[in-house]
Amino acid sequence: MNAGRPKGWSGSTAMAGAKVSVSYDDGATWENAKIKRKDDNSFQASVHHPKVADTNGYVTLRTEVWDAAGNRTVQTISRAYALK
Asked: Which one-letter DSSP state was computed for residue 40?
């Protein structure tokens, strides 16, 4: 996951943190992914999927990034991909 600022931004582009959550039941319950910082604007998320039979067959993702000033972006992608 990469985060940044719009073209022309003159302030800091560093992100203070990130969070990724995954759901296997269309958002009824959530699990946190393991997050690793790669640089000021990049994070890597790792998840271990359960057996397909224990899910609805899809993964829903919720990502959050924020900066030191408290600006935050949250995005949810319903049924981002199917499990096999």
From this structure: T
Measure the CA–CA gap between 25 and 9, rounded to whole angstroms: 38
- The domain segmentation of the chain, as residue ranges, is 17-82
Q: What is the pLDDT of residues 41-84, one digit of tens each?
A: 889 999 999 999 999 999 999 999 998 888 899 999 999 999 99
Distances (CA, A) of 7 to 11, 40, 42, 65, 73: 11, 17, 17, 18, 17
Residue 25 has pLDDT above 70, yes or no: yes
- The conformation of residue 24, written as its DSSP 8-state character, comes to S
Closest to 23 (Cα-Cα) out of 55, 67, 64, 1? 55
- Could you tell me if 46 and 37 are in contact, meaning their C-beta atoms sit under 8 angstroms apart? no
Look at 1-5, 26-30, 35-39 and tell me which has the smallest mean pLDDT: 1-5
